[in-house]
Amino acid sequence: MLLEAAELLGTADLALTVIGSDGFDPEAPLSAFEDRLRQTAPGLASPVRFLLRRPTHPP
User: At 15, phi and psi to the nearest 5?
Assistant: First the structure.
């Protein structure tokens, strides 16, 4: 929804960050949702960065 809202606004004065979940595996293939986010991001007027999230609790 964040990227969809940014697309509707069409403004370049936002800085968007998408943070992965605790269970994110950088070696796993992208889910359909992640793939859609990464396909949408380059078409936005505002920059989008993707970050891995590190667990806040021990495994």
Answer: -125, 110
